[in-house]
Design brief:
The complex is a heterodimer of chains A (359) and B (431).
Chain A: H1 13-16, H2 23-43, H3 46-72, H4 80-97, H5 103-122, H6 130-150, E1 162-164, E2 169-170, E3 173-174, H7 182-205, H8 207-217, H9 219-224, H10 229-256, E4 258-260, H11 261-264, H12 267-281, H13 286-311, H14 315-336, H15 340-354
Antiparallel strand pairs in A: 1-4, 2-3
Helix pairs in contact in A: 2-7, 3-7, 3-10, 3-12, 3-13, 4-5, 4-6, 4-10, 4-12, 5-10, 7-8, 8-10, 12-13, 12-15, 13-14, 13-15
Chain B: H1 2-26, E1 28-29, E2 32-34, H2 41-61, E3 70-71, E4 74-76, H3 81-91, E5 97-98, H4 103-116, E6 119-121, E7 139-140, H5 146-160, E8 169-175, H6 178-181, H7 184-194, E9 197-203, H8 211-220, E10 224-228, H9 232-243, E11 251-253, H10 260-263, E12 274-277, H11 286-294, H12 311-334, H13 341-349, E13 352-353, H14 355-360, E14 370-371, E15 382-389, E16 394-397, E17 402-403, H15 406-424
Classes of the chains: A mainly alpha (359), B alpha/beta (431).
């Protein structure tokens, strides 16, 4: 009864094509944006910033990137960590070469560099598919991480191979480095995430997005009806890598501040978790990217809070439980709802439409 | 019924949380970043047990530090940087000191802790140039640094070769991370100075895969092998060395590669393996008797209590002792038992562990005396060589505590810290 579209007439193509066609969705989204932009910045503290919100935003971006490639274009990728490393190291190199450049521009350029690298590593996708492609992208993961650890030029010949961010400001407020206030780093990430998400959503609804989905659903049929596989697949790789590169740049510059490539961009810390995010969230769904990122980022923290701070278990027992619960949840999700959290949400919406009547 | 139960549960948890917060305010907070899970757990567990047992002993024997109980919440990091950051953010309020037990997390926390005003104590690990207190106000890495360690190992090799190692080949097997890369610069400088050839052999995280590394060693036949390893990497390296019949007394590990866990899996093959150390093994010290009496005999031992007296357990005791001593000194300086994190740092900078003070604390002959000052956060720079006796299953100290090559090390520290100071725009203190 609350969530119904009755009486909402669309009298133009424009209103029919809106991202949120329903009034209720519009209200909900505006409220969310209002809270995100005008309330959270005033109440945020460094724990919420560093442990929950900033990682959530960054991983959402990475999940959107991977979702474009895997969820929309059907190309399975395990190279997320490697591409994020490209974003991070591009940011570092540009930062040190051009100390006066604005950080926002640096991060976007890093995204473009990652897109270029993504195209190169996307080339095999024209010949190999499915699991074989997953293995090829896995190679890119190991190669890129190895490269950034092996060639000292990338880390400016520092003794330890660590790269460290220096302070950069937006409108006079530091957004990178240890002195950056919590609201500044949060807002910086939020603006990038909101703008890039809208861009992604519209890309997916455009001709390009439809050709991605055509390739995903059946590449031979798509080719016959005139979708060029070369252009489509490589554009998916490029755009996906752009998003992942921006996420990597933020991960290094805004979130961690100091990074060691083998540890921070390891397959187990980045590539698999991001893949889990889109599987749990929902393949081929924008909302799913956010839900999945929120789930993967907050679940360990939530479980830890529940078990250690509430129940009073020791930290190590809680960790063992956490690992077990994590594994169980993965299996349960794959069995019960293989389409992910986004699907659960759409079921809930269907139910809400008819509520309180069963039919 | 259900709702009632839920309500009761909620109220109980709210009470639990509020009491948790109260406890945190009343006591001196020493948060612990531990890893009892993951690839580094074999080394993380004994070390964490040492810490907890010492804190418990102080609370039981002395009623805390100057009457203030020690509150030591544990946070499991699994040796992961991102989790370490979360743990830090969660516990940093009113925290006296963080002991990250990971070079990666230490690098991560140095700028953050400096901005927040929290002390970081990385005992013989972390960023070596943090020994320069002029630049690193909040970071301490006494009593000895990796660069000291590298030069002490070379000194030991020199001594065994009658002072001449020209043309000899020394291989460094290292964890391919910031931690393992730390000694490379020093060793390169030393190789020029003494004329030995340096061979670098990285081992990737977590360190289980070392076939290629030891094949290379078998082919190149270096005269000595040094190791900067941690976690499973140590065991695998020592086993591999034993299986290619590399002479064990030519194989020297850093102080993090010389615990019982590392040598036991190799059995008799590990006999003669050497490692550096800055504290003694064993249980013949007063502090062990006190821990036995006040903690273990009451059944309150941390973990299963089986690591009592092992190398890493004892190192945990040593680390905890220095942290507690800093609080005692701070209380003395500021004339109050309720010290703030800033006061605690002042205390740390004035720690002077003389032989007499060590004896008072129950650490007689356990470790060499050292002093921390405004300029010097790196302590004495003393370490000794210990050797594994596989038959007796016991570590034996085979040398005196010795200094590294301070000409080389001090120069490198000054270089690296001034680079950091310029990058981060830090003005030098203590002038």
């Amino acid at each position: 009864m609350i969530y119904k579209e009755t009486g909402q007439y669309k009298s133009s193509y424009k209103s029919d094509h809106a991202i949120f066609p329903l009034l209720q969705d519009k209200i909900a989204f505006s409220t969310l944006m209002f809270i995100a932009f005008l309330i959270i910045p005033f109440v945020i503290n460094s724990y919420w910033e560093k442990a929950i919100l900033v990682p959530f935003l960054i991983f959402s971006l990475a999940a959107i990137g991977l979702n474009i490639l895997t969820g929309y274009c059907g190309q399975v990728s395990l190279g997320t960590g490697g591409f994020m490393a490209v974003g991070a190291f591009s940011t570092y190199k540009i930062m040190t070469y051009f100390p006066d450049m604005n950080i926002m521009i640096i991060i976007l350029i890093s995204g473009l560099i990652t897109a270029a690298v993504g195209i190169i590593f996307g080339l095999p996708s024209l010949r190999i598919k499915g699991f074989y492609l997953a293995v090829a992208t896995l190679a890119s993961q190991f190669f890129l991480v190895w490269l950034f650890n092996k060639v000292p030029w990338f880390y400016n010949y520092s003794d330890t191979g660590q790269i460290t961010v220096s302070e950069r400001t937006m409108f006079g407020i530091p957004v990178t480095g240890a002195e950056a206030p919590s609201y500044a780093t949060y807002l910086f990430c939020l603006v990038l995430v909101v703008v890039l998400s809208f861009a992604a959503k519209n890309l997916i609804r455009s001709k390009m997005g439809r050709s991605w989905m055509a390739i995903r659903d059946m590449d031979i049929a798509a080719e016959i009806i005139g979708v060029p596989p070369l252009k489509t697949k490589l554009s998916a790789f490029a755009i996906s890598s752009f998003y992942i590169g921006v996420a990597g740049a933020l991960y290094f510059a805004v979130f961690l501040g100091a990074i060691e490539v083998t540890e921070s961009f390891d397959i187990m810390t980045i590539s698999f978790p991001v893949l889990f995010m889109i599987i749990i969230g929902g393949l081929g769904s924008m909302l799913g990217s956010f839900l999945g990122a929120a789930f993967v980022v907050t679940l360990p923290i939530g479980l830890k809070f529940l078990m250690v701070d509430m129940v009073g278990l020791s930290a190590v027992t809680a960790k063992h439980f956490e690992i077990t619960i994590w594994g169980l949840l993965m299996i349960v999700f794959l069995i019960v709802e293989p389409h992910g959290l986004a699907r659960l949400w759409s079921i809930a919406k269907e139910k809400l439409r008819r509520w309180p009547f069963p039919y | 019924m259900r709702i009632k139960q839920l309500l009761i549960g909620m109220i109980a948890s709210v009470i639990a949380v509020s009491s948790y917060v109260e406890m945190a305010i009343a006591d001196l907070k020493f948060p612990m970043l531990v890893y009892r899970t993951g690839a580094y757990a074999p080394n993380g567990i004994p070390n964490a047990d040492g810490f907890v047992d010492y804190y418990k002993m102080i609370n039981a024997r002395d009623g805390g530090i100057g009457g203030e109980k020690i509150f030591h919440p544990e946070c499991e990091t699994g040796y992961k940087t991102q989790v370490g950051v979360e743990c830090y953010e969660k516990n940093k309020k009113d925290a006296m000191v963080f002991q990250p037990m990971s070079t990666g997390i230490t690098y991560q926390l140095i700028p953050k802790a400096t901005a927040d005003g929290v002390t970081i104590y990385s005992t013989g690990y972390g960023r070596t140039s943090a020994a320069n207190g002029k630049v690193f106000k909040w970071v301490f890495n006494a009593p000895v640094t990796y660069w000291d360690g590298a030069s002490i190992a070379v000194r030991h090799i020199l001594k065994n070769n009658f002072g001449n190692i020209k043309g000899k080949k020394i291989a460094l097997v290292y964890h391919n991370s910031a931690y393992g890369k730390e000694p490379i610069r020093t060793l390169e400088t030393l190789s020029k100075k003494h004329g030995f050839k340096l061979m670098l052999l990285p081992v990737d995280h977590p360190g289980q895969e070392q076939k290629a590394t030891w094949l290379k060693i078998r082919k190149a036949r270096p005269d000595n092998v040094l190791m900067w390893g941690w976690g499973v990497m140590n065991q695998v390296a020592i086993k591999s060395a034993a299986s290619i019949k590399f002479p064990m007394d030519k194989f020297i590990g850093i102080w993090w590669s010389g615990s019982e866990n590392d040598v036991l899996p190799a059995g008799q093959g590990a006999h003669g393996y050497k490692s550096l150390t800055f504290n003694a093994p064993g249980t013949d010290y007063q502090v062990h008797k006190d821990i036995k009496k006040y903690v273990h005999d009451k059944g309150e031992a941390s973990g299963d209590g089986s690591h009592f007296g092992t190398v890493l357990y004892n190192r945990g005791l040593f680390q905890a002792m220095v942290q507690v001593e800093a609080a005692t000194v701070a209380q003395k300086i500021h004339g109050t038992s309720k010290i703030t994190p800033a006061m605690y740092r002042d205390g740390f900078e004035n720690v002077n562990l003389t032989a007499k003070r060590l004896e008072e604390l129950g650490f007689k002959d356990f470790a060499p005396p050292f002093q921390i000052s405004c300029e010097n956060h790196g302590g004495s720079g003393l370490a000794a060589v210990q050797q594994w006796d596989a038959k007796a299953k016991k570590w034996n100290m085979i040398t005196e505590y010795m200094y590294g090559d301070s000409d080389v090390v001090q120069k490198l520290i000054a270089e690296d810290s001034s680079k950091y100071a310029a990058e981060q725009k830090i003005a030098e203190r203590c002038n």
